[in-house]
From TrEMBL:
Record InterPro entries: AB_hydrolase_1 (IPR000073), AB_hydrolase_fold (IPR029058), Carboxylesterase_BioH (IPR050228), Peptidase_S33 (IPR002410)
UniProt GO molecular function: peptidase activity
Species the sequence originates in: Colletotrichum asianum
Pfam families for the chain: Abhydrolase_1
Family in the record: Belongs to the peptidase S33 family.
This protein's UniProt keywords: Hydrolase
Gene Ontology biological process terms from the UniProt entry: proteolysis
Protein name in the entry: Peptidase tricorn interacting factor 1
Record domain AB hydrolase-1: where: 36-179
């Protein structure tokens, strides 16, 4: 199956004029297919495309639909902005909507495309449609999108409290910025994923 990947320049009004960022993308399948491309929006913010890759590689193969993966700004193979990591005002919905709009434009998808959004990606998809009313959008599919951020945060706090106290404390320290290295919270995050995502051993490498 064909695959092409690359980096797309992305600039937002909140960036300094001399700051240059890039969005990483990968297209699996034939762009000349009769089926419009499907853009996959991963969860988070803070995840990457990897956990959705096995499912949508299979989808692309079985349906001959080209699939566009990308890592949202600040994550994975896209530009990281570490000095703004804890700046909640900076990481706003408009930033991610603008990045998605830029991706669609730079890849020339205005002639027809669909969206699949998972978790936070489902919220992003809805915000994108409401704010930009994008040309060429044909279908939108939402997976496990939260009904509200307040409910989502309350649920997350409940799951974290179910972890052993030391692991829960490490996650709170990381959230507050006391711990700078994400590797120190890898194990607590893995245990949290086992509670909330998939109770399977061994845990899939993509997750």
């Amino acid at each position: 199956m064909q695959a092409v990947e690359g980096l797309i320049p992305f600039h937002h009004e909140s960036f300094p004029s001399d700051f240059h960022s890039q969005t990483w993308y990968k297209i699996i399948g034939d762009r000349n297919s009769e089926h419009p491309p499907l853009i996959v929006l991963h969860g988070g913010p803070g995840y990457t495309h990897h956990y959705l890759k096995p499912t949508f590689q299979l989808f692309a193969r079985q349906t001959s639909t080209p699939v566009v993966f990308y890592d949202q700004i600040g994550n994975g193979n896209s530009t990281h902005i570490r000095d703004r990591r804890l700046d909640e005002a900076f990481w706003n919905v408009d930033l991610f909507v603008a990045e998605l709009q830029n991706l669609v434009a730079k890849l020339g998808l205005q002639g027809g495309f669909s969206l699949y959004g998972h978790s936070w990606g489902a919220m992003l998809a809805l915000k994108y449609v409401a704010m930009r009313q994008p040309q060429g959008l044909q279908k939108i599919v939402l997976g496990s999108g939260p009904a509200s951020m307040a409910l989502s945060k309350n649920a997350a706090r409940g799951w974290i409290s179910a972890l052993p106290p030391r692991q829960a404390a490490l996650l709170e320290e990381y959230r507050m910025g006391s711990i700078q290295s994400s590797t120190k919270v890898d194990h607590p995050l893995e245990e949290l994923d086992k509670l909330t995502t998939l109770m399977k051993e061994p845990f899939p490498r993509e997750l």
